[in-house]
Design goal:
The structure holds two protein chains of two kinds.
Chain A (H helix, E strand, L loop, with lengths): L1 H11 L2 H19 L5 H12 L4 H18 L1 H7 L11 H9 L3 H34 L4 H12 L1 H5 L4 H15 L2 E2 L6 E2 L13 H19 L18 H22 L6 H15 L11 H17 L1 H7 L5 H12 L8 H4 L1 H29 L7 H20 L2 H19 L4 H25 L10 H41 L1
Antiparallel strand pairs in A: 1-2
Helix pairs in contact in A: 1-18, 2-4, 2-18, 3-4, 3-16, 4-14, 4-16, 4-18, 5-6, 5-7, 6-7, 7-12, 7-14, 7-15, 7-18, 8-13, 8-21, 8-22, 10-21, 11-19, 11-20, 11-21, 12-13, 12-14, 13-14, 19-20
Chain B lengths: L4 H25 L15 H23 L15 H40 L5 H22 L14
Helix pairs in contact in B: 1-2, 3-4
The chains are: A mainly alpha, B mainly alpha.
Amino acid sequence: MIDTLGDAFLLVATWQTVLALGLGVFIGVICGAIPGMSVTMAVALTLPFTFVLEPIVGILLLLGVYKGGVFGGCIPAILINTPGTPASSATILDGYPMVTNGQAGKALGMALYASCTADIISNLALILFAGWLASFAMEFGPPEFFTLIVFSLTIIAGIAGEKLLHGLFSAALGLLLATIGLDLVYGTDRFIMGNTDLMGGLNFIVVLIGLFAIPEIIAYARRPSDEHMKVHCMGNDSVTFSEYKRCFKTIFRGGVIGAVLGSIPGIGAAPAAFLSYSEARRTSENKDNFGKGEIEGVAASESGNSGVCGSTLIPLLALGIPGDVITAIIIGAFMIHGIQPGPLLFENNADLIYALFMGLILSSFYLLFIGKFAIKIFKHVVDIPKSILLPSIMVLCVFGGFAVNNSMFDVMVMFILGGLGYAMLRCDLPAAPFLIAFVLGPLLEDNFRQSMLMSGGSLEILFRSTITWVFWALTIGTTFFLIKSKIKDRKVKKDSLNLSLDIGSVK
Amino acid sequence: MYIIKRDWLVGFGVCLFSISLIVYLIPQFVDSPRSVRSIVLSPVFWPSVIAWMMLLVGVGILVSQYFERGSAVLKSDYDEPKESYSRVFVFAAFLAGYYLLLPVLGMIWTSSLAYIIFSIFISGTEYRKTAVIVGVLLPMALYVFFYHVAGVNIPQNEFVRLP
């Protein structure tokens, strides 16, 4: 064991490995920060460079890009209301309101600290519980996935704002748009209307940009003014230790949620971020402030998505199964170097595994330093006059929207959804439930239909295991408490409004 | 000043949209094979569930408006001059023009032009020189990144092509 650890240390402690890891994190942060450059694209583009490198150097380079990319996605999500990656879509909910409240530095800082902490938790989960989590993940079939997603959707009731029904309509619209494309079971058309570009459905990044960035631009064009946002003091708006301490419970929970969900193949970082956000909101003392610029909200979503990074390697290393597209690319890198991931990897290449673990721990520290550097640079974005910044965002959106699929059609979809997003804004229909439903909708439907295929159409399969029962109980309990607190809030607001009207009429 | 009218409109809009989904859009644009074993496996099932859900929500909005018609709701909308609405239409036309010019002038030059128009004429920026410089350099920088680094084939025109 000691010998293996020594060999592993020698593998990691080379300048090539250390440099590759740092470079990977740097590339990832930059690519993640550019809307339209997904982490998948960044990892795929880096893959050819690893062919000529030593296996450990190449694999750590890719893992660095992956981790950096997941964090980098939060930078545009917070600063310009456009998530760089799907994983950071939940960060918009509180990140951008914090910027408008003049707390850009705090939002970015908390995102970084939450990401790094959750990343370490995830790495530790990988190192300590890989075997146990892999066997737990194997318990998850389509019915368990379905109940998990149903539970994640309860967040909609929480973030719908004052008008729950408006939020539910917004979510239903998101679910509906997620059905566009070829049917996954029968391959038949759904709302394609003869347009081949719609066969693959609406691209997630394009929808996100359209729904969040373009309405901001339209709203600005409607009433242009060059007011700067309130962030000017670099030193005065960083995260304090007491704020980090206050959010630590949320960060830890987010990291654990991310680590557990990351170990289950096929879930990905976005649902983990939403679930973490939902749980943070449910248990927070400041739950009313969520969606209005609550630092705990940023901590929750970023810890949720970063918590996935380390644990997605659990099914990859322990079982040889890629958890998502990115780990599928990374599995390719293993194979190119003649390494077959799976249970035998721990016996045949134990030094490589331990070296990988050491590199992953090191990458968390790299993320902290490179992330801090990136924040210092990107933070100045909010000081740019709006008449210069918003046209820049528009151009960036067009390039980013096109780059996702090399498709001009996507640019059109982005503009149309921008119009829809603006109309929703004007009608008090919140965009956040739409976003959550659009992300989780396909997972919900696919797993429901797979369950029905398995059971021949019987709904009993949705109650087949302890896991499904636990999620049903959590869903019912959460929905009940959310609705109860909504009714209570509404009553309090109504009473205070009537009181203020009475005072006004007496005057 | 208090408003309630908009929520009535939203409620009616949601109901109309969901009815059009149930009656026309789903039967017309969602294909379902005849040999589907169970209704829950049909491609039509999920969109139908969503459409009915929307209808319920729409009715819910109308009912809640009916019961709240006597109570006051603070106006959330801000007072805006009527010309701000026309600015939205002008901007929509501008975005349509931007999109239509992309295949003709290429993404770089169209984006430069759109940037300058947006910044100088629509926003009325006081930083005109900066707007022109950024308007020219930003699309070029994005082109260099996406084309040369990320390998994305950014569309260009036939007249002035960048390497």
